[in-house]
Amino acid sequence: MASVGPSAASTQPALPSGPAVFKTIPYAFILPEILCGTWVWILVAATSVSLPLLQGWVMYVSLTSCLISLLLLLSYLLGFHRNSENWKVLDSLYHGATAILYMSAAVLQANATINSEFGTNGPLNYQLNSAASFFAFLTTFLYILHAFSIYYQ
């Protein structure tokens, strides 16, 4: 029987488990995504929400994304993926969809920031909204980076 070379499945890089998640691109982006998304939620919650429909969407996207990303991070840390290639597809689809949702939230938060510039609530509300807009766009960038870097592994 002739020896056969390595199969295509064994040439794929293994999905990280445990602490290796924090050292492997794109999985190392998950923790900064969670932290920046948490800042978005905290900063919007600290403002006097003048546009509840706009900022309600921002709060929904940031809180939901933080929770799902946290579950995804825990599943990688605990090795639930069992090195299945389907997890790469799930990860890419989740981060791509979340990047789109976060972009919409970031634009709505920027609009809320513009509207709060001359509001009656003072400069603190504007500064909190500005910081929330910054972190919303930063989080969007992290999700986009994560979604696309899966393809370049």
General form: elongated
Largest sheet: none
Class per helix and strand makeup:
mainly alpha
The radius of gyration over CA amounts to 19 Å
* Unreliable residue stretches: none
Structural domain count: 1
Q: What portion of the residues fall into strands of 2 or more residues?
A: under 5%
Distance between the termini: 34 Å
Total number of helical segments? 5
Tally of DSSP β-strands: 0
SSE arrangement, N to C:
HHHHH
**Average pLDDT reading:** 82
Instruction: State the helicity in percent bands.
Output: 55-70%
GO molecular function, one term: structural constituent of myelin sheath
Pfam family, one: MARVEL
Organism: Mohoua ochrocephala
Subcellular location: Membrane
Description:
The protein is mainly alpha-helical and 153 residues long. The protein has one domain. The chain is 69% helix and 0% strand. The protein has helices spanning 8-11, 30-46, 52-78, 86-116, 123-149. Helix 2 packs antiparallel against helix 5 (123-149), helix 3 (52-78) runs antiparallel to helix 4 (86-116) and helix 4 packs antiparallel against helix 5 (123-149). The radius of gyration is 19 Å and the shape is elongated. 32% of the residues are buried. The model has no long low-confidence stretch (mean pLDDT 82).
Features:
single chain; 153 residues; mainly alpha; 5 helices; 69% helix; elongated
Provide the fold topology.
Layout: H1 8-11, H2 30-46, H3 52-78, H4 86-116, H5 123-149
Helix pairs in contact: 2-3, 2-5, 3-4, 4-5
